[in-house]
Write the structure tokens for this entry.
Amino acid sequence: METKRFIKNDSGFACAACGREVEPLGYTSRNHCPYCLASLHLDENPGDRAANCGGIMDAVKADPDPKKGFVIYHKCRECGVIKRNKAAADDDMDLLIYLTAKEL
């Protein structure tokens, strides 16, 4: 039996990095804060909440993608793991553009 690698989990939250309230995205799982682009290390696969770390994941790089818009690279402050995630439509565009110039 095949296991799903994506579990929709679209709920609002208070950002652990900047403290702002973040509304649900509405069309897919909300993975990160649209204001500071930080995330939490909660998932092994999107939405599964199977990671034991729980550390803040800082947006360290963004790459433009012709199909996805931007792909954000998050690095965990606690364990150092790097994960990729598609940017959301309401993400801070200036911050995304700034992150495209950074090295991973």
The longest strand covers residues 56-65.
